[in-house]
Each structure stands twice: as structure tokens, then as C-alpha cells.
Amino acid sequence: MADHPVDEKLPAPKMATTGLQHVAAMYAGVVAPPLIVGAAVGLTPAELTFLTGACLFTAGLATFLQTVGVWKIGARLPFVNGVTFAGVAPMTAIVASTDDKKDALPVIFGAVIVAGLLGFLAAPFFSKAVRFFPPVVTGTVITLIGVSLLPVAFGWAQGASPDADDYGSAVNLGLAAITLLVVLLLRRFTRGFVKQIAVLLGMVAGTLIAIPFGVTDFSPVADADLVGFPTPFHFGAPQFQLAAIISLCVVMVVSMTESTADMLALGEIVERPADERTIAAGLRADTLGSALAPLFNGFMCSAFAQNIGLVAMTRIRSRFVVATGGGFLVLMGLCPVAASLIAVVPRPVLGGAGVVLFGSVAASGIQTLAKAGLDKDNNVLVVAVSLAVGVIPISAPEFYHAFPETARIVLDSGISTGCVVAVLLNLVFNHLGRGGREAADVTHPMETGEDLAATTGKAPAAS
């Protein structure tokens, strides 16, 4: 019997080119989190290059775990794993609450290790509890991830530092706008491989355009070694702080929820539906990859949704193609020169690309919410309140100023708080019994009793 397309091994040239395509589609997504967190910590260009390379290296290892698999670890589907966006806001909150910034990364690494190990143990149970994470919850969380990261893109568009004289200058904003325009034009008028790497090409174009303005700095490439290895615990031994651990455990739940949704979607696309066992194995790969990543100075890993779209578009379903992409990620992580290339890209250029990148995450969440049954008032209320709570740290950054610093690590992450609220409200409204009216009878949360009576034939309840 012929192998399923998921298990097909293509000729080496096609394996290499299609594997590179997967790397191109997710490269910007992998390097964005270390750029954000590294900038918050105040790393030098050389340290930022090292952190970026470490994240590429660990993303490759996690992709191997997910695609090739070992024992009961790995969904053995064409999944690319990389640094999850969900952890960025909580990690920057940890950095902000750490007095000595040199301790920030060790604290983050310690929290990731604990969250990863707990997630690994919880994977088989979480796969059974997936019914508590319907589209109304996952869509809300994914939307919050994109919305929470958009301010980062806007900050990048203004420049490298708020203290710089050119911060928010017309040149910086112009470079961001040009980069965004190039990405949009490529997405609109190209197809295939070029369309998939539009963000990467936009960053290259923006960087080249920035050279005459003196904004591009090539020193990171000049100072980088051709070959290097992500030295274990380069930034210090992991530190374990309860508040940080709680915050990233919440992120792990978010990441596992998103990965579960991705596995279900990808299973349908490749015509190998993801059952409970597959989901549990995939979550083990995610969480074990996350737990091991800090050893090599990497962050929490999860499946990359943009690569699912690439599988759907190309119809190339082989998991070994993605494993080849994981090999390229490892090689890039072992070549500091390759990792340093992203450090050359000026912040305004990253800002223009980030608008598309982070906005696409929010759009993915909205697409999920479109399937969430928002014609029912219970679901509308879950989304409305969860989104409102989730945007508090963005719209009112000092809202929780009177709370203890340890509590603010969790509260200042809109993703974490929004996720908790969405899960709890979904349980209350959709699982623990309904009130006097069935959710299916209601078409709008502000619907009056008279409107309801008119549409259902039932008399309005007495107030």
C-alpha cells in the first residue's frame, strides 16, 4: 500500500526548495519575539544576534520533534514550530518588573522550563479537555495576541529608541510606510513562492532603501562569526520566580489551545484527521520543545499557523519537507552571520513589516471568531468582555498600578488575562447551565424581551 502523502519523501531538490519555502514563510515570525524581548532587556547588537540565532536553533529542534517524532512525542504532521507570539507580552512584562535587567532573561528561562514541563505532563489530559476551548475562546485569544503586539510595530516604526533625536521622524515613518507598501504590492500582484515571502522581501527592500538615509547599520554582520553554537545558559542560570512562572503557565495554556486548533485544521487539510492521540503527541512535542529551549537560550515554542496556509496552498503534505525546513533552521542557528542579518534591518522597516505580521495574527483570530456562533448572545458576551479585559494593558497601561508587582506580571499581559476571562466566561455561559433563556433563542445581546417574543413566539420574562 502506498504511503500517505504526509509520509511521502520527495526528491532531494524539491525537498530542499519546499523546505526553504516553509522557513521563508515563518522566518520573520521566529525572529520577532527575540527582537522584542531583547530590545526590552537592552541587549547589545551582538547579544541580540546570539539570542536570535538561539531561537532559530531551538525552533529547528522543536520542528524535528513535531514532524519526525519519537515515542509518543510529535504529531507527525507537517508542522513548523517556532517561538510563540503569545509569550511576548508576558515576557516583556517580566522584563519591566525586574530591577536588574541582567536577571530578566534567566527569570524568563526558568519560567519557560517549568511551564514546559507542566505542559508536557498535562498534554494527555488537555487533549481530552479541548471541548472547553471552542472557537469563541481560541478566536478571542488569537485576536488578542495580534492586537497586543500591534503597539510594538508602531513603536518600531518610530525608531530604535524613544530617547533618540529622530524618534518618530518623517524619515522613520516614511521607511515604515514604504516597507508596508512593498509588502502589500507583492501580496497583491505576485503569486506562489514570491507571494509567500512578501514580508521578507519587503524587509529587504526597506533595508536597502534606508541605506542612503544612514539608518542601516551593517556592523552586526561584520562582527558576527561564520560558525557558532548557542552556548547553554549563555545569559545565566535559570531563576525561578512564582509570579513569572504563573504568567507563562497561562501562556502555555494559550499556546496549547492554539496548537490544538492548528492540529485539527491541518489534519483536515492533509486528510489525516487529528484524533485525541495525535493531539496529545503534538502537545508533548510543543511542551518538551519549550522546556528544552531555555537550555540553548530559546523561548517557548508552538505551531506556526502561517505554514498551515502554505500546506493548503501548495498541496505538498509531506512532513519530511517541513522536517527539512527544521534542518535549515538549525543550520541558521549555528551560523551567527545568518542570524545577524535580521539585526541589520532598521527598526522602522521592522515596524512596517510588523503591521502586516501582527495584524495577520489578529485577522486569523477574527476568522476563527466568524465560526464561533456569534449569533448567540452568550458567545457575544464572552468575546466582548474578554476582549475588553484583554485590551486594558494597551489602552490604559497604568490601570493596575495599585496592584503588587508580582500580580502585575500577569495582569499587565492582556493575552493572559483575556484568555483566563474567556475560558471562565465560556464555562459559566455555555457549560454550567443556561439562565431563563436558551442561548440559541437570542440573536443579539441587546435584544429586548419584545424583540425576542416577536422572533420566537415566547412571551417576555417578567422583570
UniProtKB/TrEMBL annotation:
<keyword id="KW-0812">Transmembrane</keyword>
<feature type="transmembrane region" description="Helical">
    <location>
        <begin position="24"/>
        <end position="44"/>
    </location>
</feature>
<protein>
    <submittedName>
        <fullName>Purine permease</fullName>
    </submittedName>
</protein>
<feature type="transmembrane region" description="Helical">
    <location>
        <begin position="78"/>
        <end position="98"/>
    </location>
</feature>
<feature type="transmembrane region" description="Helical">
    <location>
        <begin position="349"/>
        <end position="369"/>
    </location>
</feature>
<keyword id="KW-1133">Transmembrane helix</keyword>
<feature type="transmembrane region" description="Helical">
    <location>
        <begin position="133"/>
        <end position="157"/>
    </location>
</feature>
<dbReference type="InterPro" id="IPR017588">
    <property type="entry name" value="UacT-like"/>
</dbReference>
<feature type="transmembrane region" description="Helical">
    <location>
        <begin position="235"/>
        <end position="254"/>
    </location>
</feature>
<keyword id="KW-0472">Membrane</keyword>
<feature type="transmembrane region" description="Helical">
    <location>
        <begin position="320"/>
        <end position="343"/>
    </location>
</feature>
<feature type="transmembrane region" description="Helical">
    <location>
        <begin position="409"/>
        <end position="429"/>
    </location>
</feature>
<feature type="transmembrane region" description="Helical">
    <location>
        <begin position="50"/>
        <end position="71"/>
    </location>
</feature>
<comment type="similarity">
    <text>Belongs to the nucleobase:cation symporter-2 (NCS2) (TC 2.A.40) family.</text>
</comment>
<keyword id="KW-0813">Transport</keyword>
<keyword id="KW-1003">Cell membrane</keyword>
<feature type="region of interest" description="Disordered">
    <location>
        <begin position="439"/>
        <end position="463"/>
    </location>
</feature>
<dbReference type="InterPro" id="IPR036259">
    <property type="entry name" value="MFS_trans_sf"/>
</dbReference>
<feature type="transmembrane region" description="Helical">
    <location>
        <begin position="104"/>
        <end position="126"/>
    </location>
</feature>
<dbReference type="InterPro" id="IPR006043">
    <property type="entry name" value="NCS2"/>
</dbReference>
<feature type="transmembrane region" description="Helical">
    <location>
        <begin position="381"/>
        <end position="403"/>
    </location>
</feature>
<feature type="transmembrane region" description="Helical">
    <location>
        <begin position="169"/>
        <end position="186"/>
    </location>
</feature>
<dbReference type="InterPro" id="IPR006042">
    <property type="entry name" value="Xan_ur_permease"/>
</dbReference>
<feature type="transmembrane region" description="Helical">
    <location>
        <begin position="198"/>
        <end position="215"/>
    </location>
</feature>
<dbReference type="Pfam" id="PF00860">
    <property type="entry name" value="Xan_ur_permease"/>
</dbReference>
